[in-house]
Amino acid sequence: MTNVTLSQAQRVVLLLSGAVKGVGLYPESHPAITHPLQELAGIFDALLADRHELRFGIIDGVLFFEQHLFFTPSAAVEELTELLVRKGVESATVIPGLQVEELRHFVTLLSRRQLQGAALAETLLRERIVHIALLLADRDRLRDDEEAEEDGLNPQATYRQALTVVGGIFREIEVGRIPNSDKLRAVVDQMAVLTIKDPATLLGLAMIKDYDNYTFYHSVNVGVLAMALGSALGFRGEELQELGMAGFLHDVGKTRVEKTILNKPGRLSSDEYEEMKLHSENGARIIGEMEGIGPRVAQAVLGHHIRFDRTGYPPWARALPFDRFCDIIAVADCYDAITTLRVYKSALNPKAAVELLRGLAGWHLDGALVEKFAEMMGRYPVGTLVRLDTNEIAVVWRPDPHGGEQPTVKIIMDAVGGMLEPPLVRDLAAGAAGGEIVAVVDPLLKLIDVSKYLE
Ligand SMILES: [Fe+2]
Ligand SMILES: [Fe+2]
């Protein structure tokens, strides 16, 4: 591996800090923006020809790029240092494959004043910036449990943090590193507290889907759903946390599957399917190497595609004694997959999805668990789009606490089809304001993104 020279490091700092400033001053296609970005991408590319990654950031208040520390501040050094500190970024890792367009997008997001800390990291993920990952400084990482509990946990922040952590783990594995499990443990810790305290909000958040970052959102949603089901079954403490980890990591073996297969819009060929099927055993192997994660998590990942009737894959593992973790993950996995729109299939609404799970009970899935899941989701699960007898359209926001047909909803469209902004919250059980659910509505027909009402 060739060393990064000091002049290369200085050039990177100069170009990067100039580009961040430039995007605010010039149109995107202006040479003042495109030229430095092309040069920067070229330097990264050349340096990454014989290494896995490049890292820059702040260490004890001093800017570094790889092994070079910038003690003597130039204007560019000062500006970049100030920017990273303000954004709550401890370091950024660049991996091979970064194209100019992605770099431009990264720089643009970095230059947005309001975007910092966890929100910045999450936006990068959402916007498919996958060749640069941020490590956040301490103040922006998860606070420890006691502190967090004192001022109340925030489900939205915890959900976002879970996305960032899961995204980071996947990326580290992709570049050949074995990730540390500390951050994962911290986030499942918080999630476990919230699952017991406020499951309805988390179930709403688990309805957020992201087409472009399917794997990350799917992983987090499966973790959230599995923990909610586990909690409904009476799991607490370490057991609930381990179940969450198994959910978050159940598809981690997909990091070993060719991207072309993973993102293929149509049906897989039989060879491709065989490769895809290796993800459960590969995932279990990866988890086995991660410190601080118990064997029960690896076991659940290994068996998450073994069906209740002991068919499924990998075939060699069918006779192993899997515990309930496996069956719980399978239910959560199935539910999230069928409520998500993919290129090759449409999404089911939550109510229809619960019905479909019932059809799989007893052979594909554990029937008792499916019933418990259905009970937990209620007659109209959170995220279902419904029509009321007043002809208003609403999104189910909180389940009916008594398991009945009167959840709390957000009315998003009035009786004559006008959108309500902001939506009106109405507890249907309260009766006075009226409104009884008469039908489930397909969000696609109304072109409504249900998830935006659930955050
Ligand atoms: Fe899977
Ligand atoms: Fe999955």
From TrEMBL:
Query: What region holds the HD domain?
Result: 215-338
Record SMART domains: HDc
Please report the stretch or stretches of sequence annotated as the HD-GYP domain. 193-389
Instruction: List, alphabetically, the Pfam families matched.
Output: HD_5
Tell me the protein's name: Uncharacterized protein
Organism of derivation: Geobacter pickeringii
